[in-house]
Structure formats: C-alpha cells, structure tokens
Design brief:
The structure holds two protein chains of two kinds. By secondary structure, chain A is mainly alpha-helical. In chain A, 67% of the residues lie in helices and 0% in strands. The chains are: A mainly alpha, B alpha/beta. At the A-B interface, helix 3 and helix 7 of A face loops of B.
C-alpha cells in the first residue's frame, strides 16, 4: 500500500500514541462490525430464497445474500486473527450472544415486503459501495484486499437495487406507495450508518478505517439521485434509531440469531 | 524441483470448475502459484466470488488429485490480493465457454466495462444479436441470464468483473 508523500506503512502505524493492545482491540472491533453487518444483512436477505416474487429475482436476491455471507466469512476470519484468542469465523458467528453483535439496526429489521427489502438493500448497497471504495486504500493490507474484492460485488448489487428503486417508484400506483412507505420507514435507521464513534475516528486517523463524513456526502448524493429518478421524495425524519454498535439491538435480533445459531448451539462443532 | 512443479501443474489441469466443468482452474485464472514451502507443496489460488461455494469443491479437488498422484503433504492457500478478475480468463478458456453455450465476458474489467452493460450479446446457439438481458443474476454468482429473441432459448453470460 503506497501512501502520499513517501510515507511508509510503519511510519503511519507508529504515529499512533496508543499501546499495541488498545490498537489491536480497536482493529478487532472495527473488523468485527464490518463482519457483523455483512453477516446479519446476508442472513436476513437469505430468507427470500425460495420466496422471491419471481424466479429471476429469487436467484438475484439469493446471489446477493451469498456474496454477503462470503464477505462476512472473510471479515470474521480476520477479526478472529486480530483478536488473537483463537476464535474462528464460526465461533464469532454462532457462539456470541445478542449483546455482543455490533451490526447496525437496519441490517436486522425483518424482511418485510419486496419494496421494504429493496429500499433497505439499496440504502445498504450505496453505503457499502462508497465504504469499500474508500477502504480499498486502507494501510491494513488484509482489509484493503477484502475491500478490493468486495467492491466488485458492491457495484452490481447497487446497480441491481438502484434499478429496482426506479422500477417500483416510477411504476404503478401500488408499487409507488409501497416503496414510498418503505423509504419513510427506513430513513430513521440510516443515520446510524454515519454516526462515527471513537473507534471509527481512531481508525480513520491511522488510515486503517474510512472517513464517514465523506461517505455520508456521497451517499446522500446517490440517494437523492435515485429518489428523484424514482419520483420519490426524501422523507422528513423526526427521530433516528441507533444502538447496534453498543449491542443494543431491536426486538427482532434475538429471533434472527435463534434461527441462525440453532444448529451450532444444539450440536456444537457440527460439520456438513 | 522445476520438473516437479511442471508435473504438478500438469496434474492440476485435471481440476475443473464444478459448475462449469469445461474450464480448468488455470483457464479461470484461479491458479496463482505452485511452489514448495518448508517441505510442503503449496498451491495458491484466488477466489472468484466471495461466497462462491465452488471454491470449497475446488480446494478439495486440488488436494485430492495431488494425493492420488503421490503428493501427500499439500497446502492449498487462498490469496485475496490482487482480486480475481475475468481479465484472467485464458483465451482457450473463453473459446471453451462459448462452445459450452456461455458467452464469455466482453471487454476488460480494468476498463470498467462492467458499467457499460452490453446492449446486446450474440446468442451462442443461433448467432443472432437480437437478445436481451433477463437478470443480472444467473444460476451461479459469475453468470447473468439472457434470452435470444430469435431462437427463443435462454443463455448465460459470464459477467465481466
């Protein structure tokens, strides 16, 4: 990874005033959050498998879920390595309790109808697209490699859900109303995506993590363009919802985990 | 040692993509390197799509075919960077895909041709270019689904990423 002005990676990392333990904890949390977002989003989306509105879209949604689970596997494997406590991707996915998951609330909301799934996924795909575009320049070479790989997939995810936003918004009166309602219901959950905390700030300062302010700006522009093309208005938001970062999840999370973890909780270590 | 590596590469020609069995892992550009690492034979591969289940089958097949040929101490290592691109598909791989009924990726991922969605592809069966995209997602992560408006048959397109 080359930096500006001939800086080296080592010089950058050594700028950090923290102890190695703190910085390792930071990196663990940072990677864990990304992994949890991909895992929980992928798990939710996979619920459409066999239930899509028609065959091609069933395959499309399931393919996206597969990419997300694949991304989660890379990230959780790396999180386990960074933590250094011997936890594998499976340990992190199947043997943590609700309070230990660090995903944003928007990831865990129930699938709802196809309009709700589409609007949620469009918001997330746009976020991921700009996020991983920036993260591919991380000084952390593993994160940069995962990001470069992920970005290729984010591109077609975003194109796919972007097209559906327009098709539903600028479609029939019924589809318009359904996607309008979905956007209104989901918008309060999008603020959490850009709510940087200390870990985000420290990771950004060390050029490991991304600048959420810059991503928020790009995201707002992308969403504005898509909503305009879909003949939708951006809803006024009078309240916001957050808490995923602190492990304070919605009432839906426990049910999701119960389903996702049930086999491994019943027969720990079971293999295919 | 060099002779061994050539031999290993020849053996690995038997390992094919389980979903598209006309393509070897070398054709796909998945096979990155073969070498020795502290007495172990190391085969380095790059995953195609993050969640593609075929990667597991391929890892397993590599180890199995080498074992059958007397190489017991084998490590299959996955390398993420640089990220796999369809630009690495070999010329013969592209030809084999077309013969198999799958249109190979158009253009180069480097040139961001991904964003220029092909207006129309040539039908691999009747060669008509009166075709249309049905879905960006096909039977496997790497393919998109098209149909020919002349011969009315569906066909796959190997996406350019």
């Amino acid at each position: 990874m080359e930096l500006n002005d001939g800086e080296t990676l080592d010089a950058k990392v050594c700028d950090c005033p923290m102890t190695p333990d703190t910085s390792r904890q930071d990196l663990f949390q940072y990677v864990l959050r990304l992994g949890d977002n991909a895992l929980i989003n992928g798990q939710r989306l996979s619920e459409w498998c066999g239930h899509g509105p028609f065959l091609e879209e069933d395959v499309g949604v399931a393919n996206t879920a597969l990419d997300l689970i694949g991304r989660a596997r890379m990230l959780l494997t790396y999180a386990g390595e960074v933590e250094g406590a011997g936890r594998t991707e499976d340990d992190l996915a199947y043997f943590r309790h609700e309070r230990d998951f660090r995903n944003f609330l928007i990831m865990e909301l129930p699938v709802g109808d196809f309009a709700f799934t589409t609007a949620r996924q469009f918001f997330i795909d746009a976020y991921d697209y700009f996020y991983y575009q920036a993260l591919q320049y991380s000084v952390d070479s593993t994160l940069a490699a995962i990001a470069a790989k992920t970005l290729k997939e984010c591109e077609y995810h975003l194109r796919h859900t972007g097209e559906w936003m327009v098709r539903l918004g600028d479609g029939t009166a019924e589809s318009h109303e359904k996607i309008r309602k979905a956007v209104a219901d989901l918008m309060p959950f999008t603020f959490e995506l850009f709510d940087a905390d200390e870990i985000d700030r420290r990771m950004c300062e060390r050029h490991i993590g991304v600048d959420l302010d810059a991503i928020e700006k790009s995201w707002n522009e992308k969403v504005a363009d898509a909503l305009a093309e879909a003949t939708l208005e951006r809803p006024e938001v009078t309240f916001t919802r957050s808490g995923g970062r602190q492990g304070l999840h919605s009432e839906h999370m426990g049910y999701l985990l119960a389903e996702m973890q049930s086999v491994q909780r019943t027969w720990p270590g079971l293999q295919w | 040692m060099n002779a061994t590596i050539k031999n290993v590469r020849d053996i690995l020609e038997q390992v094919v993509d389980p979903e598209i069995p006309v393509l070897t892992i070398a054709d796909l550009g998945i096979l990155q390197d073969v070498g020795w690492n502290e007495g172990r034979l190391q085969v380095v591969i790059t995953p195609t799509y993050s969640g593609c289940p075929a990667m597991h089958a391929i890892e397993h097949d590599i180890a199995a075919v080498l074992r059958e040929n007397g190489y017991e101490n084998v490590e299959v290592k996955t390398q993420l960077s640089p990220a796999w691109t369809t630009d690495w598909l070999s010329e013969s791989g592209r030809e084999k895909l077309l013969q198999y009924g799958i249109v190979p990726p158009l253009g180069s991922a480097d040139k961001q041709s991904l964003r220029i969605v092909a207006a129309s592809l040539e039908c691999p069966r009747c060669r008509s270019d009166n075709t249309e995209k049905i879905s960006e997602f096909g039977s496997t992560p790497c393919k998109a689904l098209y149909k020919c408006n002349d011969c009315l048959e569906p066909f796959d397109y190997f996406k350019c990423i």
